Structure formats: structure tokens, C-alpha cells
UniProtKB/TrEMBL annotation:
Coiled-coil boundaries: none
Upper classification of the organism: Bacteria, Bacillati, Actinomycetota, Actinomycetes, Kitasatosporales
Pfam family, one: TetR_N
Protein origin, superkingdom: Bacteria
Organism expressing this protein natively: Streptomyces zingiberis
Protein's recorded name: TetR/AcrR family transcriptional regulator
Amino acid sequence: MPSARRTARQSDLLRRLVALVAAEGFASFTLDDLAERLRCSKTTLYALAGSKQELVREAVKYYFRAAADAVEKEIADTGEPADRVVVYLKAVSEQLRPLSRRFLDDMAQFPPAREVYEANTRHAADRVRQLITEGVAAGAFRDVHAAFVGEVVAAAMQGIQRGEVTARTGLSDADAYAELASLIVHAVSS
């Protein structure tokens, strides 16, 4: 159900659902469990989505839509190109921080949710590529091949998303994004 057509109660329920699954994951929950934990009826949940799978996908979309908006607000008033890249990736990091490993693992195993995360990862990589292109054009960055740097960022983000970076380094997704911000800015700075 599009957010414009949600009631205030439905929006509140969706926010509470997002908080629950972000903290505890979603694979082990049944609709009965979710209704009990959220103190609502299954009928109320069905008003948000027609099945548990659709409900989970809706919650993941809601989370990442809100996260993307928050990230863009963070860089809106940032002028310096290097600061914009750092602020952007650190804001992504902060938006991922509340997501439990269980949620991330559940999302990786559930194709509809994983597709939402992958789409958001592609958007974030494209956004970094755009920020680097702007920084090169402004003379703030070395004359780097922004598309290549963007591809490196995308590959790193995909590794973070799939849990590979955590498995190899022990860094959380959020901490990995913070490290990526530092690496990229230092690599492209004049």
C-alpha cells in the first residue's frame, strides 16, 4: 500500500514493524508472532500487505526509503566535495547501524528483501560516483576516472551488503562504510 494512502495508525504500525525486524530479523516470525509483538490483529497487518513476504518487503522498502531521505538531508548543506563524499558514506553507515546482523542475514536469504537492499546499494554507489564527478569538475579531486571509482565503491558496497566484509574483517556494515568513506576521499584527494 503506498504511503500516501496509509492512515496514521498504519504508518505507526509500519514504523514499529521496521524497528522490530531491524532489531530481531524476520525469518523466524510468523504473522501471528508479528501481530502479538506489535499488539495488533493479523487483519491489521494484512491491511499493510497481503502476506508475510509482502509485509517484510514493504518494511524493508520503508526502512531504506527513510534512510535514503535521511542521507540526502545530511549532505544537502555540505558544500565541499570531499566533505560531501565523507558525509554521504558516513550517513549511509549511520543508517545501517541499527540493523542487526540477524536482520541483514535474513535479508540476504530472502530474495524480495535482498532486491530492495541491492537496489539501494546500486543507488548509493551511483550517488558516490556523482559526488566524485562533481568533485573532479570543481577541482577538489584529482582527475580520477569517476566511473571506475564508482565501480570500486559499488563492489565494496556489494561485499558489505553480502556480509563478506564482516566475515573477513569483523567490521560491522556501518563501520565498513565509514572505512570506505575514508579510503575513497584519501584516494581521490589532490
